[in-house]
Design goal:
alpha/beta; GMP Synthetase, Chain A, domain 3; 9-stranded mixed sheet; globular
Length: 543
């Protein structure tokens, strides 16, 4: 049998980090994570579900229609045939996907992997320059694009004519739907090595330009078996709902991979305002929700207007979960949020709060198969309660595409250094303090921006805020708070002093924000994360 890792297009394997720079998966390769050495992730997730009798069960829901597992499999096979027979895809080719969360996006994602291609999903809000960076970095050869989002992609490809684009959507001549109709609904999966790349995921750019991370076929299963299985315990009757696009790997797991792995279903939303998400959860009787703290905070005041009785678990990730958001959601719904933290580099979550635990403010404990510790700059484990760098090891890990220097910074001694500052308590729970590049050092004091943000959020005028350090000649750095108000007209010196006094009353005085600037909105990435590097780059206001 030929070596399945010898793909005709060796681009991905050639651009993996040097083996010495790989994270140590160690014991995480055994037990529940001992996958076949020859496999195809889509076949494991979808074909197996149909073979196990789930074909007639609903799999994906939108506002307009629902697909069964059998319908999804038929669409996936037809798209795979289009890719191979019409477009000439060979295993190892990269395919850019550009669409919001909809049925064709889900089917296309699975089809690329089934055909032996490598998915490069993109956020719907990205512009031509951002897409051009991804096209070049990942060496894209093909693109499947929802018609309303085609303009930016066409602009990016104007100087890249080698990229073959097929659009889908209503009224597209000879588009993907027409091509699918001419193809068979049968397709034999391309069998890959378990460590062949199936996904190139770009980070959301919270610290600058997006980086490309590489994930294997086995990784797509590992996140399901580390998080969804042991923590969420999904069953076929469960319905997942959330806001994150598939290009945000938090959303990929929550709304596609997790449901498929356990025969459940998911609700797909092309846009997810607080009202959209609440209405979808009520209409489809969602049992498990996944979204970011910002959206939980926005949904809290109106949650009582919707029937959310079907919900049993609500997971938060994507950014720090303030205790006030946790408590507000519980008061509104009776459900405690399940906090979690992950990264694109690790593909999905690695720390999660056990659903039965109730420690507002803590992130949680390592998922099954993962271990974590808080270390100093020399990788020495710090004592309980000390703040340091979070190091994680488990069944997934960071592999940057063609970037050994960045790889050396993220992976040290086999551990993934996530870029987060944490402390651990005596009971094994981990507590977030800041991104390591967001930790503020002022006059020798270490200050957690998250702690200051939580204090500011207690003020009734504050809708959201972000706190960073800004250079200061006397103190090294001072605390700067960027605040979005419920009513922008109220921003004035009196309110600024009120916010400073509030922080002084709740925290040590040296932690108060010497700079308070009112903004109409915080800068965010396409996945909704706050771009603190943009705030740090703003000219410092007068102190």
């Amino acid at each position: 049998m030929p070596d399945p890792s010898r793909y005709p297009d060796p681009f991905a394997r050639a651009h993996l980090p040097a083996p010495a720079l790989w994270p140590d998966l160690g014991a995480a390769m055994s037990g529940r994570f001992a996958y076949p050495r020859v496999m195809n992730a889509t076949a494991e997730l979808l074909d197996r579900a149909v073979a196990q009798g789930h074909g007639a069960r609903f799999c994906l829901h939108t506002a307009q229609e629902s697909w069964t597992y059998a319908q999804l499999l038929d669409a996936v096979n037809r798209i795979a045939n289009v890719l191979v027979r019409d477009l000439g895809l060979v295993p190892g080719n990269r395919v850019l996907l550009r669409a919001p969360n909809n049925l064709m996006m889900a089917a296309s994602w699975l089809a690329v992997v089934k055909a032996g291609g490598i998915v490069v999903a993109t956020m719907p809000l990205l512009r031509a320059a951002e897409l051009a960076h991804m096209l070049d970095k990942a060496g894209i050869q093909f693109a499947l694009c929802d018609a309303p989002l085609a303009a930016a992609l066409n602009e990016a490809c104007a100087t890249r004519p080698h990229v073959r684009i097929v659009q889908f959507g209503t009224g597209v001549p000879d588009g993907l739907a027409a091509r699918m109709a001419r193809q068979s609904g049968a397709f034999a999966p391309v069998m890959a090595s378990h460590d062949d790349v199936a996904l190139i995921a770009f980070t959301s750019g919270t610290t600058g330009s997006a980086k490309a991370t590489m994930h294997f076929h086995r990784d797509l299963l590992a996140i399901c078996d580390a998080f969804a299985g042991p923590v969420l315990k999904p069953a076929p009757h469960d319905v997942f709902a959330g806001s994150a696009p598939f290009a945000f790997t938090f959303g990929l797991g929550a709304l596609l991979l997790f449901p498929l792995r356990f025969g459940s279903s998911a609700v797909l939303l092309e846009k997810a305002t607080p009202e959209d998400l609440l209405e979808a959860m009520a209409r489809h009787r969602a049992t498990i929700s996944f979204t970011v703290p910002t959206l939980y905070r926005a949904m809290t005041p109106i949650a009582g207007s919707y029937d959310l009785a079907s919900l049993r678990l609500c997971v938060s990730s994507g950014e720090h979960l303030p205790p006030s958001v946790h408590e507000g959601w519980r008061r509104a719904t009776g459900i405690a949020l399940v906090n979690s933290i992950g990264s694109t580099e690790m593909l999905h979550a690695f720390l999660v709060m056990p659903p039965a635990a109730d420690r507002p403010g803590a992130v949680g404990k390592p998922l099954p198969g993962f271990t974590a510790m808080v270390v100093d700059e020399h990788m020495k484990e710090l004592p309980i309660g000390a703040v340091g760098r979070l190091a994680v090891r488990g069944p997934t890990g960071c592999r940057y595409l063609g970037d050994d220097e960045r790889q050396k910074a993220y992976v040290r001694a086999g551990w993934n250094l996530t870029g987060d500052a944490f402390r651990a308590d005596a009971d094994g729970y981990f507590w977030y303090h800041a991104r390591t590049d967001d930790m503020i050092v002022s006059a020798g004091y270490n200050i957690s921006g998250a702690e200051v943000e939580e204090a500011l959020l207690q003020h009734p005028a504050v809708r959201e805020c972000a706190v960073v350090g800004t250079p200061d000649p006397a103190r090294g750095q001072v605390v700067a708070a960027f605040v979005v108000l419920h009513d922008p007209a109220t921003g004035a010196d009196d309110l600024r002093r009120s916010l400073q006094d509030l922080v002084k009353s709740r925290l040590a005085p040296y932690k108060y924000p010497r700079i308070v600037e009112f903004l109409d909105a915080l800068p965010r990435t396409s996945s909704g994360k706050i771009q603190r590097h943009v705030l740090r780059a703003r000219p410092a206001a007068a102190i």
